Every structure is written in structure tokens, then in C-alpha cells.
Amino acid sequence: MRSTSTYRTRRAAATAAALLAGALVLTACGGDDDKASDDESKGTGTDTSVTLPKLDGQTLEVAAVWTGAEQENFTQVLKEFTKRTGAKVKFVPTGNNTSTFLGAKIEGGQPPDVAFLPQVGVLKQFAQKNWLKPLGAEAKAQLDKNFSQGWRDLGAVDGRQYGVYAKAANKSLIWYNTAAFEAAGITETPKTWKEFISTAQTLSDAGSPAVSVGGADGWTLTDWFENVYLSQAGPEKYDQLAQHKIKWTDPSVKQALTTLAELWGKDELLAGGRKGALDTEFPKSVTQAFTGDTPAAMVFEGDFVTANINADTKAKVGTDAKVFPFPAVGADSPVVSGGDVAVALKDGKGAQALLTFLASTDAAEIWAAQGGILSPNKEMDQSKYKDDVTRQIAKALIDAGDDFRFDMSDQAPAAFGGTQGTGEWKDLQDFLSNPGDVAGAQQKLEADAAKAYGSS
């Protein structure tokens, strides 16, 4: 887990937000500019910036949380790895409880060779239990060449490098249905939280469900909270809460939850109301914003939304589906990042070879060409991204360097920040169900946080 000193100031976060806002202004005016060829989209790249060993006859297992379009896009990377090494690779979905799934596999003596961990807190816990294998020399060489210090630090524990952040996310984005905005007579996207709520009300009054919320997946609700909290309370408080150096009963948390209740407490602004939101999983939250007779007008989540738009709707990113930065609640717009870190759970040449490939520009460019992904790989060819919208969001992430805040719940112990049906996920679902009980939500969050951090 990153220390507080690794993070930057409010001014740096504001700079990154400005970069992102500028990039999205450019893309909002244009259509989908697909510069990736059909061959690239299928993962048949010919550049070889990395040398891999022959692994004929070996079978590797790779575990990750992804399903559907996200899994299929990653499969193209694995196909190229197989083509170059001869190894067969089996993908194993972990489900939302990644740490529980992998923990059972490891303790049962049957871990996958490589796993993607969606939480920094899980990386730290696994390292402390000696479940992880350090990066080999070849993988570390690729990592050092292609990734900034901030992303390398996130994959290290106590000075030892374990992971490769091959997949990142910008989690400070609102995607919107352009037809719904036009029908409501909205010509400008909101820049502040006050304007965002006003825009949602205008859309609702015009007959569109204003905001689609994937509340059945508790992690989406943690992202809502983090964006509001970072913008409103500031980066220093964010870092303190992320490490549980201040309690969830702190007045800054009360203020953020009260702000969220301005949206979550109004059924008419949510697609299906609060009950509908709690019954909606993340993929459906995206599709219901871009399909059907009365689609929702807006949906919040990261750049990976494009994977669902491309796979599950007929909407065209950059034309039918556009995006704007998460509105500023306080002085600055937030910049919250997330990511999945690839780690080896088994010794052997195969696991290290796959990590080496994942740290290379080759793998990054093949994966980026599929859509629905950002790569922190600063040396990759940015033209490989599937569309201009993603390309500009990715550029903003790279240009920001180490000036970002990592997803708060992903820094927490898994029992609090990364487990379905418990901890922060469940507590925020309960708050979505009853947004009038701010004090009760704070008490639950603090009790669960204290228990998880105390045992980590």
C-alpha cells in the first residue's frame, strides 16, 4: 500500500483533472475515430519488443475478476502469448470475492500461476502471508522501462516488487446519452455537483431516467463516495481515511454522505428508483443508459464503460455516448484511479514469462486495441487505442504521471473494501436504500473498518 508521502497535493490533482477535462472537450466534439486495424483488434501484432522463452507443452492458469467483454478482450492478449511461447493458458474467473476465491485455492494447494488482484490491500495481505512470488529479472526490466515510479510503487510491498499494473482505470467519469441530452435541451455538460443535480432534474422532468446506478455491485458505490470525498474533503483527508488514520465518523464523511444523498435520496433521479438501483449490476447500469425506448441519460464509472457500450449496445462512443469529468463538489474535480495488478502465485518460468509479457508494450498495445481499457504503460503507442475518447483519457492518465489518488476501497483490507455483501460495499448499499440515515451509515462503516484494519 502506498504511503501518504507518495501522494501529491491538491494542486497536482487539479492539474490532472484539467488535463482530463481538456482532453474530453476535444473528444466531445468529434466522432469515433477507430485507428486500430482489424488485425490489431484481433491481437495479431507483429512488433516484438520483448523476448519470451519457449514453453511448449506447459499449461498456465490466469485468474481475474473479469467476465463478458472484459474477459474476451484480455483473451486476445493471452492468445498472442500462446502464439509466441507455445504455452496453453486457461482463464479462471474469480467472481467478485477475488481474495476469498484465491485464498481458498492457495490454501488448497492449487493456486493459479498468475492472478490479477483488484485491490492494493489484497496485494499487501498476500505478500505478508508469503503467497506471492517476486518479479524475476526480465519482468522487472520491462516494468522499469515502461512504467512510472508511482505505478511501480503500487506493485511493491516493503521494497520488494511483486506486481505489474497492466490494466488501469480512470474512475472519475460520467458517460451520457447524447440523444437524451438533446431531447431535454441540454447543451452544456455540468462542471459542478450543483450543476450535475440540476441537470439530472432537467432530464427527469423531460421524461428520461436521469442517472443509472449499478448498486447491486457494491464497488460502484464506493467509487461514487470516493469521488465526492476527494473533491470535497481534499487529498490529505482522503489519504488519512484510506489508511484509517481518521474515523468514518469524522465530519468530512458526514458531509460527503450528505452530498451523495442529494442524488441517492431522490427516486425520480435514479433509473428504477433506489430499489431499481440496488437490483442493477454494473453491466446493466451501462446498457440501460444506451438501449431501450427510454434509456437513462447518464451513468457513472470509469473508462472501462466503453467495453460494455461496444459489446452490448449499438451506441457509438464519441457520437451516441460521450463523457465528461466527474463534477467538482469542492474546489477541484476529482481524479481517482484504479487498476488490476498481475502477480505470480507459483514459481516457474511460465508465470514469470507471462508477467514479463504483461509488462511489455506489445501486450499493452494488443489489449488497448480491443477497447475498454487504459494502460499505465507510458512507452506504448497511444494510437493503438480503439477510439479517440479512450485515447485522450489514456493520454491524460499518462500525462498526470504520479499525480493521482488510487481507489480508496482498493487500498483497504479486503474484508472492508473488497468483499461482496460485507464491509463498505454492504454499508453503502444500505445507505443507498436509506440515504436519510447518515449517522447510522457512519457508525456501520466505522465499526466494519475498525474490525478489518485491526486484524490486517
Rg over alpha carbons: 21 Å
Q: Give the structural class.
A: alpha/beta
Low-confidence stretches: 1-16, 25-46
**Amount of helix:** 40-55%
CATH topology call of the largest domain: D-Maltodextrin-Binding Protein, domain 2
Tally of contiguous helical segments: 22
CATH class of the largest domain: Alpha Beta
The average pLDDT is: 89
Q: Kindly report the name of the CATH homologous superfamily of the largest domain.
A: Periplasmic binding protein-like II
Form type? globular
CATH architecture of the largest domain, by name, is: 3-Layer(aba) Sandwich
The largest pleated sheet is described as: 6 strands, mixed
Instruction: Compute the number of strand runs.
Output: 12
The N- to C-terminal Cα distance equals 12 Å
Strand content: 5-15%
Number of domains: 2
Folded structure, characterized:
- It comes from Streptomyces aquilus.
- Keywords: Signal, Transport.
- With 456 residues, this protein is α/β, with parallel strands linked by helices.
- The protein folds into two domains: 187 residues, D-Maltodextrin-Binding Protein, domain 2; 183 residues, D-Maltodextrin-Binding Protein, domain 2, CATH 3.40.190.10.
- 49% of the residues lie in helices and 12% in strands.
- The protein has 22 helices and twelve strands.
- The strands form three sheets. Strands 1, 2, 3, 6, 11 and 12 form a six-stranded mixed sheet that branches. A four-stranded mixed sheet has the order 8-9-7-10.
Summarize the structure.
The protein is 49% helix and 12% strand. The chain has helices at residues 10-28, 38-41, 68-85, 98-107, 120-128, 137-146, 149-154, 178-183, 193-205, 218-233, 235-242, 251-264, 273-278, 282-290, 305-312, 349-358, 361-368, 388-399, 408-411, 414-417, 423-433, 438-455, and strands at residues 59-64, 88-93, 114-117, 156-157, 160-161, 164-170, 173-177, 211-212, 298-300, 321-325, 336-344, 405-406. The strands form three sheets. Strands 1, 2, 3, 6, 11 and 12 form a six-stranded mixed β-sheet that branches. A four-stranded mixed β-sheet has the order 8-9-7-10. Strands 4-5 form a two-stranded antiparallel ribbon.
